[in-house]
Amino acid sequence: MCAAVIGVGAMGRNHARVYNEMPEVELAAVADLNPALAKEAARLYGTRAYTGYRAMLEEIQPAVVSVAVQTQAHCQVALDALAAGCHVLVEKPIAATIEEGRRIIDRAAELDRVLAVGHIERYNSAVIELKRRLDGGELGRIFQIHARRLGPFPARVRDVGVVVDLATHDLDIMRYLMGKEVQRLYAETEQEIHTAHEDLFSGLVRFEGGTLGVLNINWLTPTKVREITVTGQRGMFLANLLTQDLYFYENEEAGGLDWGHLSLLRGVSEGQMVRLRLHRREPLRAELEAYVTAAQGEQGAIVSGEDGLTVLELAQALIEASKMQRVITLS
């Protein structure tokens, strides 16, 4: 299958690398407005370089395209790729606005093209195993899910703030793990370094069924932290998304209780901690394999355009809640 990448900055170059490593895919071309970036990626992976993506689409006619340009350009580039007959994976967030995201989704459906959104953490081995264990009821009732995504400011991100750029990862993970929708939300933000947008965010989301989601995300921490904790009746899971490690901290008070007695749980005490064995894979490789599989007409576990749009809607609502300083209830 013939593939191309539009935008070969930090993330796009990795898309090109992975396509080049996939035996069933031919990386036919890369495109970037920066000729030096395009030429370097083409040199590394033995393909053709373009500065104009429209010319590339016309000449190469790739079957699958990854769109890894700045968020503000997602809509136009994705629409052009769809019009050229390509299946499209657009890096998260799906678009800069909800209206643009809907245009991409509707156009992909109209043309019967696969549209995937690059929420890469869905393919993290720790998240996948955590989902399996939660679906199996290993925590009992879930009280809280807490995401921490901290790190230094990336100078390359100028068109959006930390909520749209980073919190969309964790909003998607939370929806995926809970299998439920958000009912209401609230947020506080600060702008310390970024010239136009927020760079520190603390948010609360309440899911159907009562689980509380907590998000602590910023570009102001001098070391990277990527963690999800899920707390419930039987204890707590901790997923380190950087190392793809998953830990279980047991609530000893619940350790000997069967399901019929969990509702009678009256206490919490420290039990054993277990580091769970995982089969680790590069999340981007798993994501692109699922995308190519879907583009071939088979069952591929992609993150749909609708999922991507829902997450963008949540991110925009959290920004609005911060500006208005009020709780927002979602219909």
Keywords for this entry:
single chain; 331 residues; alpha/beta; Rossmann fold; Dihydrodipicolinate Reductase, domain 2; nine-stranded mixed beta sheet; six-stranded parallel beta sheet
CATH architecture tag of the largest domain: 2-Layer Sandwich
Number of DSSP strand runs: 15
Q: State the secondary-structure class.
A: alpha/beta
What profile does the largest beta sheet have? 9 strands, mixed
Number of domains: 2
Name of the top-level CATH class of the largest domain:
Alpha Beta
- The main sheet orders its strands as 14-13-12-11-7-10-9-8-15
CATH superfamily of the largest domain, by name, is Dihydrodipicolinate Reductase, domain 2
**What percent strand?**
25-35%
> Under CATH, the topology of the largest domain is which?
Dihydrodipicolinate Reductase, domain 2
Which outline best applies?
A: globular
> What is the helix fraction of residues, given as a range?
25-40%
Q: pLDDT average, as an integer?
A: 94
Please write the string of helix (H) and strand (E) elements: EHEHEHEHEHEHEHEEEEEEHEHHE
